[in-house]
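User: My advisor asked me to double-check a structure prediction for OmpA family protein before group meeting. I don't want to rely on an old file, so could you generate it fresh from this sequence?
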Amino acid sequence: MANRRTRRGPAVVASLIAIAAAGGLSFVGARAAADFIETHSATEVAAALKQGGYDWATVTTDGLLVRLTGTAPDEVQRFRAKSRAESVVEPDRVIDEIQVAARESMGAPQFEIELLRNDHGISIVGLVPAALDRKAMVASLRAEAAGGEISDLVETADYPAPDGWQAAFDYGLRAAKLAHQAKVSIAPGSVEVRAITDSALEKADLETALEKTRPAGISLKADVTAPRPVITPFTLRFVKDDKGARFEACAANDEAGRDRIVAAGAGAGVAGEAHCTLGLGAPTTRWADAAVPAIQAVATLGAGAVTLTDTQITLFAPASVPPATYDAAVAKLDAALPALFNLRAEHEKQIEPIRGPAEFSAVIANDHVELRGRIGNERMRGAVDSLASSRFGDVDNGLRIDPSLPEGWTLRTIAAIEALATLDQGSVSVTPDLIRLSGISGSPTASDMAVARLSQRLGAGARYELSIRYDKRLDPLLVVPTGEECVDRLNSVMSQSEIGFEPGKSIIAGDPEPTLAGISAAMQDCADYKIELAGHTDSQGSEDMNAKLSRDRAKAVMDAIRAHGVAAPHMTSTGYGESRPIADNETEAGREANRRIEFTLLSEEPVSDDDISAPEQFAGITDSAEVTAAKIARSAAAAASGAIRVALEGPVAADAGHPGGPTGAEVIVAAATAPANAVANAQVSIQVIEALTVPALEAAFPDNMEGVAESDGQDGEIADIPVEDLPKIEPMGPPDVEAAVKADKK
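Assistant: Sure, here is a fresh prediction for OmpA family protein from the sequence you gave:
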């Protein structure tokens, strides 16, 4: 037994040693494995975070745990970094200790509103402080809108109003009340106004009122537009010569077209800023499509001029331009023009040699005449230039010398210029065989007058062709009042018999019939003009109340005018309240003067729907000088007889007590106008007018009307005076330049 115990002792010790060794080896292996996993996890996670752009994150390990630290820009970035790490190691091993950067405190929002006003009301949109009294805002605008709709689409934010907000808001409301067609944008410290007015005068008044009421410290950006002027004829003239490139006249129908035209001028050599007027009256919306290539054609030529008059384009190239360059420029321009436009191109030829048929042309528009073609010598060139200057004013003389012209050529050009003077605008061309005249005139007998002048100069046998259109607006004998005269009439009626109102109301007080009758008479021949009927008040009461009262009173007068049967289709009413005083509101007399109804002209051009008459076209051959002189004599006799009849019949009627008999002044007026009305043959009426250089009575009877023919006893009429009893009247005209030159040569 003892030996058995002795043998077991070493075995136990050996077992214990083996167990201890195995345990130590296991610990060492486990420790090595843990260190490997820890290092590998840290490396993999750090690489993944760097690849994802999370450089702000720091990775550390604690055994199998992966700890993330650092400061993320926001919560989203923190979550994405954590998710990235969990895609590399098990999620339960990731310890998230990432901090999120604190957000900056949120400031107040940007407060801004817009007020959109038109004839139907006012709309308000935007963001305002919650403390704003929106009911008071709407009530203030409703009083100004005169029954129009107020749409409050404003949102609020519970933040204090920023500096400059209240002053800008109050000013913006006043601006919306001043402008009837506008968008008013309000922001802290600034107000922007974009408005449309009915006239240039109203535009200036609005701009002045906006600037006058602008508070200190508030910036204003105002864009106020007014109707464009009517330009007739619609004209553009571009010239390039020794003086440089320039616009002598420039009109455009819209801003885009104007910019294109000005840019084309700059490209052609115009120095500095070119001015081009925006206006109405363009013959087509494609005006710039014709103007731009026309200007470019002059640039291609290097020198010359181009004139656009409505749809007619005239291109002139001086002799210095090579023929190949001229042909290429004309072909390119002709191809680029819209179908509506007609091109007339002229290339000045060298004086030697001159080939082809002789030709002369003249074009007038807006007191400007262009002379092109040939003339015999420099003396004749100067004579024709002087004659054209006396007839038309500004002269562009492009005549070139040709000594080989046929006999009588200068006389034909002079006759053509005198015939052209019967038109308000147009052109004339002369060849050895034909004189062709076309254009527009304010005289219904322009064709007859033109033929008479040709006959007087050229004698019998000269062929002519005429195409002349009558425009009644240019007729001085119609005595159609201008827009300013119409407005003066109306204001004169109001000053002599003004319409009164009940205090503080728009109800007409008293009997307005006398005033309405006066307005009806003043509106004769004035219905085609755009006229504004405006109400004005004194300064007593609130500004808003006065504005509304003035509009209501103006509307009441407008309704009364129409109810009276006055034709005023283009008259509009408005009210300006106390904004336009004409006297001191501190006195009773001044306040009474400020309470008024006033008429203003909105457009100098009448609005007319009349159709344009077709041109009168015919051809013929001139009469002889003897026939023309006989017609002038007969017409002068008839004119003088007509004047005598009016002068004698007038006093007789008045003495007999006939109701409505003419006064002495009426007799004088009738006697002065009778010669024109009594012309027997309209063809020579122009010669009669030129011949009667003294009143008809004085010309016929210089000795106090001695020799008046006795009455023939029939119906109290007075017989016509025989031609032989009248003094000889020699018609006068321009000097015979060619005859003078021939005499000078002798």
